[in-house]
């Protein structure tokens, strides 16, 4: 029975039989290296994505400004041509245009401030009408004239009101019609811009395209933000960095817990080894005395 107990105690793993620390830490090292590589690749990918967004912003701002400016030029020329066509229709309906007809024509084109009609047959019987008594005097006024079959019409108009008439064209760009992108792009008409072309701004990119005659003092400005998704928790680079930091922290915590468990196991094995040594010593001493007594009795019996 004592021999069986000693055999079982000797079968318990000793301190020298524990796994080495390197074999336990190796998986954590491999995981840490893998996470570091993934975080670095994610950082590079997000940086390239931001560069691509800026390139697209530059291209779209230039496209939107130029196309919108040409559309506004076309709409302005159409409005001017339509006004001239309406007056020619008035002349066809009436043999001699009157001030009432001229006032009606002016009211139908609210961007015109005043107009004068000079007939060819009698320049002294010119007709002049104005709408300045119904509105404030604009700071900028432009003059234009056109010839008809019976005379000359010269009118003064407010370019701001004319632009208000064609301003809905600013909302016809594809990016402006996309609900998710509306807060990130803007189109506006600026009076007397300081410079034309592209402008790099801290929060995006702007492109200014001038308008053609007669609105040469105005320009279309297209602005596209490039800082969306690049600040705070929306920034992919920040996300990759924080994810890698958390992953490294968890890996370090796992390695610490593994080493702590290994240390406890080592201490437990040392205690087991000490227990085996003490038990073996305590059991061997009485056995030796019994064996010595038995041999003494055997010799004395002889």
Structural description of this entry:
With 302 residues, the protein is an alpha+beta fold. Among the domains are: 2-35 and 239-294; 76-163. Helix content is 57%, strand content 17%. The chain has a 4-stranded antiparallel beta sheet with strand order 2-1-4-3. Strand 1 (112-119) and strand 2 form a beta hairpin.
3D shape: rod-shaped
Spatial order of strands in the largest sheet: 2-1-4-3
Q: Main beta sheet, described? A: 4 strands, antiparallel
Distance between the termini: 30 Å
Low-confidence segments: 12-19
Provide mean pLDDT, rounded.
77
Helix/strand structural class: alpha+beta
Order of helices and strands: HHHEEEEHHEEEEH
Strand content: 15-25%
Helix content, binned percent:
55-70%
Descriptors for this entry?
alpha+beta, 6 helices, 17% strand, four-stranded antiparallel sheet
Write the layout of secondary structure elements.
Elements: H1 2-11, H2 21-93, H3 99-108, E1 112-119, E2 127-130, E3 142-147, E4 151-157, H4 159-166, H5 174-177, E5 185-191, E6 197-201, E7 204-210, E8 218-225, H6 236-301
Antiparallel strand pairs: 1-2, 1-4, 3-4, 5-8, 6-7, 7-8
Helix pairs in contact: 1-6, 2-6
